[in-house]
Amino acid sequence: MPRQGDLDGRGNLSRKALVEFTAWFLKVCQDQVTFMAKLFALETLVERLRLYAERRGWRPEAWLLLERVLQQGEVPRGDASRITSLKERSARELLSLLVDDGILGSDTPKGPVSLRFPMQAIELLFPSLFPET
Hints:
Elements: H1 15-40, H2 45-55, H3 60-72, E1 74-75, H4 80-84, H5 88-101, E2 104-105, E3 113-115, H6 119-125
Antiparallel strand pairs: 1-3, 2-3
Helix pairs in contact: 2-3
């Protein structure tokens, strides 16, 4: 490839080619982020989590716990009672139910819980990922 001017390199070393490639690459990245954001529809994930809790037949306090975990990323197990306003034993039973279901999980048996996405929840929580056929 011929030089693109006195200050430009040739072929792969061309500054003009680098600028064009970088602009193209950033457009592709932006397009992919936009596409995935629409696909996951994170702005409505809260409502889909509420619907999941209702369909599983859990008590309403389960939703409060799921919402808090979604907002914070993870929640210490001891906070379940405070978040749900349930007595300690009832809160532990509810937390155990959510962990057994797979919607909440932890790296250790006594560690903080975080949101997980079990297979039975994927179609409801992320409907655009699995369009109906």
